[in-house]
């Protein structure tokens, strides 16, 4: 147990950092008027991960029957230690990219927001972070010019370019690293475009990340 404890209290252990309200149309669909004056940061636990190396899998919903919403996102992995990162050096800190879903228990989130409490439980439940394998950075010409799309039962529900991100990756790296030292292996989610909505048992989810006509990553999930 002592060895386990020493492993756990290591400040070099990785973390999952996520960004909320980073696409203007999504801000408006959630009832806001404009993007926040600073990036909105939250974290997800590693137990929320559903790693899908080939992009295919089963998504097991929680048993409580709350309304769970999909949020398709571009993510990246941090390559090296970073504190007070300069925006112009952002590429040095990118270890690769991935496609992910940031699932949200919308009922629980609304409940906690109303009370002014944190909403970690709305974002951090088991299987709430389906993620593809890593896309090496050399395959991505410009992460701020990729196309995100999510279909449910063959119907497009989310579709937008990462160029619509209000805070771009250099902005996020600079902002986060003011407060949290970024470590190799940290995972960062960059926010979701508009079109979020509920998923239900028996839904078929198909998400893609494209660079022009090239598909860089895909997610295929059957919801149970």
UniProtKB/TrEMBL annotation:
Short name of one Pfam family: FAA_hydrolase
GO cellular component, one term: mitochondrion
Signal sequence residues: none
GO molecular function: acetylpyruvate hydrolase activity
InterPro entries: Fumarylacetoacetase-like_C (IPR011234)
Domain Fumarylacetoacetase-like C-terminal positions: 15-215
Protein name: Fumarylacetoacetase-like C-terminal domain-containing protein
Species of the source: Paramecium primaurelia
């Amino acid at each position: 147990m002592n060895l386990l404890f020493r492993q756990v209290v290591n400040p070099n252990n990785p973390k999952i950092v996520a960004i909320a309200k980073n696409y203007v149309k999504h801000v408006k669909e959630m009832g806001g008027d404009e993007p926040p004056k600073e990036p909105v940061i939250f974290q997800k636990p590693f137990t929320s991960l559903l790693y899908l190396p080939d992009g295919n899998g089963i998504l097991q919903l929680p048993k409580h029957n709350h309304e769970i919403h999909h949020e398709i996102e571009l993510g990246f992995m941090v390559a090296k230690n970073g504190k007070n990162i300069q925006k112009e050096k952002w590429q040095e800190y990118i270890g690769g990219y991935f496609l992910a879903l940031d699932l949200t228990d919308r009922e629980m989130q609304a409940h906690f927001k109303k009370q002014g409490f944190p909403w970690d439980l709305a974002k951090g439940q088991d299987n709430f972070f389906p993620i593809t394998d890593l896309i090496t950075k050399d395959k991505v010409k410009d992460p701020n010019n990729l196309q995100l799309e999510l279909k449910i039962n063959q119907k497009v529900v989310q579709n937008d370019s990462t160029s619509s991100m209000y805070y771009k990756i250099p902005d996020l790296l600079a902002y986060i690293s003011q407060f949290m030292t970024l470590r190799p292996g940290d995972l960062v989610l960059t926010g979701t475009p508009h079109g979020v909505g509920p998923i239900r048992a028996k839904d078929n989810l198909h998400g893609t990340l494209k660079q022009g006509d090239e598909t860089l990553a895909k997610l295929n999930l059957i919801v149970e």
